[in-house]
Amino acid sequence: MTSILVKSPKLNSPTVHRLSNGLTIIAEQIPVDAVNLNVWLNVGSAIESAPINGMAHFLEHMIFKGTQRLESGEFEQKIEQRGAVTNAATSQDYTHYYITTAPRDFAELAPLQLDVLLNASIPDDGFERERSVVLEEIRRSEDNPRRRTYQRMAELAFERLPYRRQVLGPTSVIEQLVPQQMRDFHSAWYQPQSMTAVAVGNLPVDRLIQIIEDSFTQLAPSTSCPTPYISSPSAETSFTQIVRQEYTDPTLKQARLMLLWRVPGLTDLQNTYELDVLTSVLGHGRTARLVKDLREERGLVSNVSVSNMTYLHQGVFAVSAQLPVENIDAVEAAIVAHIEQLQSGRVTEAELSRVQTQVANHFTFGNETPSDRAGLYGYYQTLVGDLEPAFSYSAYIQSLSAADLQAAAQQYLPTDAYGIVIIKPGE
Asked: Residue 289: which region, alpha, beta or left (left: phi > 0; alpha: psi -120 to 50)?
């Protein structure tokens, strides 16, 4: 097994080490008195079928309910005894688990993290208890206006792709799942070839790699299942007209407005950078165009934001606003007018410089801690299969011109074809 040093700017110098069982290990030593182990899996709600929607997130809860070596709760107890921290998250395209420890404790605690991932027992009694926790999380999510608005957006943005479904899954599905379904799901997907284990902190790289490699050798089940084959779905086609959906929500005090366009995802990474910059031009900071115009100067909205949500197979460029109902038409027209200005090439050098500086600083500031770097490496390796785009991101943004932004606005943000979600307060 050989180690491959990934060439990168001076700020980052991780080593990538691949094992014959398919596991990817990424390690980097930095002079911070901590070590973060971040294990990423390309397992999220997008690989679920509708009858088990929510399984990946539910399994995230059950991972910590014990193994043959660890009783339920023992993992967290050992972590807390050493002053370490642990957490996990499930998304549409991935699940990841992490611990942050003192360097002297890493060799003892890292194998525990890997044991619970590889050998989760998923006991029947724990399954029923955690089902109640997940159902309560779903209820809280349904009571959250922001999450409800996001779900309306997802249902309009994605007609075929599984991103239209909720990561948590619907109550009706979670209520019907049984432990054996989860055990089968775990056996199929929690395999080394689906995992990237990232360790960043103040231990030598060879030591970090050896701890993880030895742990997998000792802890991995003697038999492994091949990861199920999932065909790569094609992206949704762009809107061909303005598709308008309107709802009422009696819990709201102000209306919600969201304009959205279907744009490239991570499988078309090179065409996402200009869109990232356009989000900053329009909506990041008080001097951004929409914020300055709609909130600061005209007072038409109480809040406006712009995002380029980049999933693996598709992206969504969205402009969201919270506003009085009577301002909806004026705000929609203003958003369209601002995008038309971008399409006509009206991006100033000052705007472009501001955004490029923001991006460069954000990248630098977001790479300071072991968990920051481990998260960056795990995300790119899992979803893109390559670390180099993470390191070259800032340089690529710096290379963009006003003409590049104009071309992207023209190609991806047509003002006569987009989706729009309106949610009004009402009875």
From this structure: alpha
Cα(68)–Cα(112) distance, integer angstroms: 12
Distance (Å) of CA 362 to CA 177, 355, 370, 396: 42, 10, 16, 14
Output the CA torsion 208→214→220→222 (10° steps). Answer: 160
Distance, in Å, from the CA atom of 166 to the CA atom of 134, rounded to the nearest integer, reads 13
In three-state secondary structure terms, 254 is coil
Question: CATH topology of 3-219 equal to that of 243-424?
Answer: yes
324 with 254: CB under 8 angstroms? yes
User: What are the extents of the domains in the chain?
Assistant: 3-219, 243-424
Average confidence (pLDDT) per 10 residues, the chain, 427 residues: 40 88 94 96 95 97 93 93 95 97 97 95 95 96 91 94 95 97 95 95 97 90 68 86 95 95 95 94 92 96 96 96 97 98 89 85 82 95 94 90 95 98 89
**Separation between Cα atoms, residue 164 and residue 271, nearest integer Å:** 22
| Res 223: pLDDT | 66
Between CA 359 and CA 397 the distance in angstroms is 7
Give yes or no for a contact between 387 and 14, defined as CB atoms under 8 angstroms apart: yes
The number of beta carbons lying within 10 Å of the beta carbon of residue 291 is: 20
- CATH topology for 243-424? Cytochrome Bc1 Complex; Chain A, domain 1 (3.30.830)
308: Cβ–Cβ under 8 A, 6 or more apart, which residues? 263, 272, 275, 276, 278, 279, 315, 316, 317
- Antiparallel, parallel or unpaired: β 24-29 and 419-424: unpaired
One-letter amino acid of 268:
D
- How far is it, in rounded angstroms, from Cα 336 to Cα 253? 25
Q: Specify the fold of 3-219.
A: Cytochrome Bc1 Complex; Chain A, domain 1 (3.30.830)
At residue 323, φ and ψ (nearest 5 deg) are -165, 160
Q: What are phi and psi of 55, to 5 degrees?
A: -65, -45
- Our CA angle for 264, 267, 270, nearest 5°, is 65
Within 8 A by CB and 6+ apart from 245, the residues are 152, 156, 419, 420, 421, 422
Could you tell me if 293 and 339 are in contact, meaning their C-beta atoms sit under 8 angstroms apart? no
